[in-house]
Write a structure and sequence with these properties.
Length: 119
């Protein structure tokens, strides 16, 4: 995936989280479902700040994107032999989040909810 595509996918994820605020560590944990490259993570955070999707205050990342993921229409499942992108567990049903910038996953059923901030 090209750097621009990773950037846009990370930005779209941050814009659609259900959380109002996260610690920097929690925010990086979410971005690591897109990329584990530290410079790409920093670029996503910096661009999200520039675009007004987040604000940084007292060690917290406040999410101002205002979006959310519609589980019924934006999360699709596929059967197969997958590894959860969040926790690394082997799964037979992968949950994938569809964004305009691309698809993110696979995740297990509980991890997909954690990634978007529902649990």
């Amino acid at each position: 995936m090209p750097d621009e595509a990773l950037l846009e996918l990370g930005l779209e994820l941050l814009a659609n989280l259900d959380d109002e605020a996260l610690s920097l560590a929690e925010t990086v944990d979410r971005i690591e479902t897109v990329t584990t490259n530290p410079s790409a993570t920093r670029a996503i955070l910096d661009e999200a700040d520039r675009r007004g999707l987040i604000s940084r205050e007292d060690g917290l990342i406040k999410l101002t994107g205002g979006g959310f993921v519609r589980l019924e229409s934006q999360v699709v499942t596929r059967e197969g032999d997958f590894e959860c992108r969040r926790c690394g567990t082997g799964i037979s049903t992968g949950h994938f989040i569809r964004f305009d910038a691309g698809e993110l996953g696979p995740f297990g059923s509980s991890c997909v909810r954690k990634v978007i901030g529902r649990d």
